[in-house]
Amino acid sequence: MTGRVFVAVLLVAALAAVPAFSAGQAEPEEVELTIAGRDGAFGDALNLAADLYTEENPDVSFEILELSGPELLEQTVIELRGDTGAFDIVMVDDPFLPQMQEAGWLRDLDAMYEERGLEIDDDLIDNVVTLGRYPYDEDGTLYALPYVGNVALFAYRHDIAEQYGYPELATWDDALGLAREIDEHEPDKDPVLFRGVAGNPIVTGFMPIFAAHGAEVLDDDGEPAFDTPEALAAVEFFLELARYAPEGVVSYESAQVADALMAGRGVIANEVWPGWIGDLEDPEVSEVVGQVEVTTPPAQVEPPSPLLGIWLLAIPEAAEHPDEAFDFLRFITSGEVQAELAAETGQAPTTVSAHQEEELVEEYHWFPGQLEALQEGVARPRTDYWAEIEDVLGDHLQQALIGDINAEEALDLTQERVIEIME
Predict the structure, then answer these.
(1) Half-sphere exposure of residue 149, counting CA atoms within 13 Å on the CB side?
(2) Where in the sequence is the domain holding 95, given as residue range(s)?
(3) pLDDT tens for each residue of 131-148
């Protein structure tokens, strides 16, 4: 089946599923839904979904604000705090949902399902649905649905790994062993790639190593836990692995990681996200077609711990059109539409069925591993202080990476500062 035919089939299936969402109005009034969303590829996918919905529901149109991450958070907080009703739907980065719901800004979706005699689509991946609940557990009340299945993956050149006796990189020790081999025998290669910029970038790539070593940001009592043997082992391992990163890695961002990987220089990438690797199998862009394994991060003393970065969709309490907004949330998170968005834009789905579509798996061979990562993934800590904690940890990790401080000093400084922040 060609891509064009595949998309057409999905479109028919998606639109066939919609009438049940919006039936019952003999003469529907025209409604404009205002969505506070992200820019870039996220915005492209959101606009596509809106167009598909309007084709079946011509009485509903959309105004979509395409904002950067910081702009989206700022505008959402301003409007929701002011109870203005300016937004019918808001796109939410999952670690910020608890703060929004502590303030009581979002509608109870469990109640909306119950009022309509409906149930949550069981095609949605359970682990990511939980991220939309508050309190954060499977019994918490649902306030948002998962829209983008963002998760940190791990990539490596399987052809080179096999050459050096590693049929797979099952543990972080395996990754370190391969890096040492590459460093010794392949001078034109970068054994390890990761984002080294302070703050969110370096922390995001480090967290799967941190969790795999059994370390935690907060202990069971919600107190900072950077002063543990597990945390020290994780940072020491990270610094050892970083010895095999390219010079200048402290300034690496996502573009540098993706470029080095697709140019054939990079062998191991500690962290790749679905949006970085859409062109990995495009021979016009990539020099490593068919040579890169994209999978869950390795295990160590604990099982693989992929870091989740899910984008959610929620309905503000003050929304002017909550019924139509709810219909659209169900539509855009359906398996058919999630598959369509993946086919057209490469966006990571949040449903099981979309990850198993034969044509999509053929185009994005990492979808089975991505599904596993979403099912096993670990959420960023559910605390109002996460953004500040991330900045502190990231600053000290980079100082250790540069060599200004050692692993123990980095953790001592982080522990001390995070205690102050949380007091």
Answers:
(1) 35
(2) 3-149+309-376
(3) 999 999 999 999 999 999
